[in-house]
Design goal:
Acyl_CoA_acyltransferase; Bact_Acetyltransf; single chain; Aminopeptidase; alpha+beta; seven-stranded mixed β-sheet; 196 residues
């Protein structure tokens, strides 16, 4: 398996993975959007320089020439720039009655892991862990020393992964209709967890 930065050509394989997250979140703004239209917008987002290596970074896990996992994150102060991509793309799509506006999710002073998704056929093979282990280098490149994320309380498996990697709960937040634990990890601490 290879962990690498995503390329625009990966977008059609990244989009279905990220759509799994949108499905789990059950966001009311997206519930009436036909699946193919939502996938088209997500694919377009993951072809933009902003999502790939501009304000944000997308990292993929590749096995046998297929993208089987993806992580997407950015410095917290870039959240508005990143969110504008989806707002602009959905404004141009007839499938959206109004442009999609994401809720604020980040905490100041962190590199925010917005999304982590693994193909269901590859779950349980350490792909999520490998993606998490790759993220500190991108956070450091963005001059951040803490990685933060939100994990849905209805997803105990994801919580266990982050907990095992050393992330600690620092607060709670409502996103859509779900309660999320906000978790953070100082980058230096992750190195100790990886060495253990």
């Amino acid at each position: 398996m290879i962990i690498r930065k995503a390329q625009p050509t990966d977008a059609p394989q990244i989009a279905p993975l990220m759509n799994l997250i949108y499905d789990e979140m059950a966001l009311t703004d997206l519930e009436d959007v036909p699946g193919p239209d939502l996938l088209q917008v997500i694919t377009a987002a993951y072809r933009t320089p902003t999502y790939l290596s501009g304000a944000a970074t997308t990292v993929v896990a590749e096995a046998n020439g297929q993208v089987v996992g993806a992580a997407f994150g950015y410095p917290g102060d870039q959240e508005e720039v990143v969110d504008d991509v989806m707002a602009d793309l959905t404004a141009k799509s007839a499938a959206f009655e109004v442009p999609y506006e994401a809720e604020q999710e980040t905490t100041p002073g962190e590199w925010y892991l917005d999304s982590l998704a693994v193909d269901p056929h590859y779950q349980g093979h350490g792909i999520g862990r490998r993606l998490l282990q790759a993220l500190p280098q991108y956070a450091k490149q963005d001059q951040e020393t803490v990685i933060g994320l939100n994990v849905d309380r209805e997803n105990p498996g994801a919580f266990r992964l982050y907990d095992r990697m050393g992330y600690q709960v620092t607060g709670t937040q409502m996103i859509g209709d779900h309660t999320y634990d906000h978790m953070q990890l100082p980058i230096g601490k992750l190195a100790h967890v990886m060495d253990a």
